[in-house]
Design a protein that fits this description.
With 151 residues, the chain is of the alpha+beta class. It has a single domain, classed as Gcn5-related N-acetyltransferase (GNAT) (Aminopeptidase, 3-Layer(aba) Sandwich). The chain is built from four helices and five strands; from the N terminus they run E-H-H-E-E-E-H-E-H. It has a five-stranded mixed sheet, sandwiched between helices. It is globular. The termini are far apart.
Length: 151
């Protein structure tokens, strides 16, 4: 049985949220090495300097329980309408199926609409069938095959 908790609040992340965000990323990619504080600060500064880039966090009762990285990209097709790429979408295991993920995705889509984007796109590992069901429940469709080359 899940404990009923407060309503999720979605907002842009700040530097103070980095420890919580990194904790969520450790849930998403448990085999990744822990980054050094210096590399985290460099990456955060680069993200903050990038136009159209927003890392969102979802808080419940003042605790960060979800995050996603939204990047709006300029585009020369679709009558030059931008697109949004969503990366690193993660909700803490204990907070799944409580509305946190839905609220986080709704805010990302709202930002995309506000920016005049023609689409919101995300990728998910093929093995994450629960995540796929969630994305489809939020109106996302499987319309393409994704390819990656890890470097």
């Amino acid at each position: 049985m899940r404990t009923v908790r407060g309503v999720p609040t979605i907002r842009a992340a700040t530097a103070e949220d980095l420890p919580a965000i990194l904790g969520l990323y450790a849930e998403l990619h448990p085999d990744d090495p822990v980054p050094s504080p210096e590399s985290v600060q460099r990456a955060w500064a680069a993200i903050q300097a990038q136009p159209g880039r927003t890392i969102l966090v979802s808080e419940v009762d003042s605790v960060v329980v979800g995050t996603t990285d939204c990047a709006i990209q300029a585009n020369l097709t679709r009558n030059t309408r931008s697109l949004m790429l969503i990366e690193n979408f993660v909700v803490a295991a204990a907070s799944r199926r409580t509305g946190v993920g839905s609220a986080l995705l709704r805010e990302a889509v709202r930002l995309a609409r506000e920016a005049g984007c023609y689409k919101v796109q995300l990728l998910s590992r093929s093995s994450r069938t629960d995540a796929h069901a969630f994305y489809e429940s939020q109106g996302f469709k499987t319309l393409a095959e994704g390819y990656r080359l890890y470097l």
